[in-house]
Design brief:
Rossmann fold; DNA polymerase, domain 1; 12 helices; HAD-like_sf; phosphonoacetaldehyde hydrolase activity; magnesium
Length: 274
């Protein structure tokens, strides 16, 4: 078996080091209703479609109590729609502002093009949000022709396999085992496993670590290694077949998979790698 296609996530994977855009937009949306939501509360469900993510945040008992205290005139069911509408107005700015390709992406893209490996994406963003991202990434050389969001799968997003299955179908690949799904969240890995694809987690830019690139680079190597080791453990426990530090390591990983013909569930790089 040889790798025929790679399906990427967006924020925290191919762009937006640290997956900051959704965090900033969610925090601002809730703040407009007088509620401070912690990064940790938001990050635990990153990877879901954004409407489902709002529902998850509002299911948190602490957030519910704050909502009822600050906005007693808006019931929790209506709150989902109110917050999501506000989020939609805020997110495009943050997507555009954080759309720089993550380290190693140009290297990975050049390799994929040279080896005629197809590229697609799945995302918790909506189609209009992806359009905003593409406007920023196309000039950087990244513009997948297939970009699947849950609007195209009857509202079914991660961790279900529906978006990835549709991406694989539209790429014209018959065997999901010939497809790598690369992502930075637990839900990315679950999506890949549920679709029967090869699941790859990326560490340094990930939601699991949740630091901007300057914050990450400011850490000493020992602290980077500690955070990376913990992220690696989470990916592995979730079922990741492979874990890489940055996209620069994706070409070597694909070469390895093509040589082996199977996934061997080994981590192939030192998590210290920047």
């Amino acid at each position: 078996m040889r790798v025929e296609a790679v399906v990427f996530d967006w924020a925290g994977t191919t762009v937006d080091f640290g997956s900051l855009a959704p965090i900033l937009a969610f925090k601002a949306a809730f703040k407009d209703f007088g509620i401070d939501v912690s990064d940790a509360t938001i990050r635990q469900d990153i990877g879901l479609n954004k409407l489902a993510h709002v529902q998850k945040i509002l299911a948190d008992s602490e957030v519910q109590n704050l909502w009822q205290e600050k906005n007693p005139e808006i019931d929790l069911e209506s709150a989902v729609d109110e917050v999501y509408a506000r989020f939609q107005k805020l997110i495009d700015h943050h997507i555009a502002a954080t759309a720089q390709l993550t380290p190693g992406m140009p290297i990975a893209l050049a390799y994929l093009a040279a080896n005629h490996i197809k590229v697609a994406s799945t995302s918790g963003y909506t189609q209009p949000m992806i359009a905003t991202a593409l406007a920023a990434t196309a000039p950087q050389g990244y513009a997948p022709l297939v970009n699947i969001t849950s609007e195209l799968t009857a509202g079914v997003g991660r961790p279900a396999p529906d978006m990835l299955n549709l991406a694989i179908q539209e790429l014209g690949v018959s065997d999901p085992q010939a497809v790598i799904k690369v992502g930075d969240t637990i839900n990315d890995i679950l999506e890949a496993k549920n679709a029967g694809a090869i699941a790859v987690g990326v560490i340094n830019s990930s939601n699991l670590i949740g630091l901007s690139e300057p914050q990450w680079l400011a850490l000493d190597m020992d602290r980077q290694a500690e955070l990376a080791t913990e992220a690696r453990k989470i990916f592995t426990r979730t079922g990741a077949d492979y874990v890489i530090a940055t996209m620069a390591e994706l070409p070597a990983l694909i070469d390895k998979i093509n040589t082996l013909g199977v996934t061997d569930h080994e981590n192939v790089v030192d998590a210290r790698t920047n």
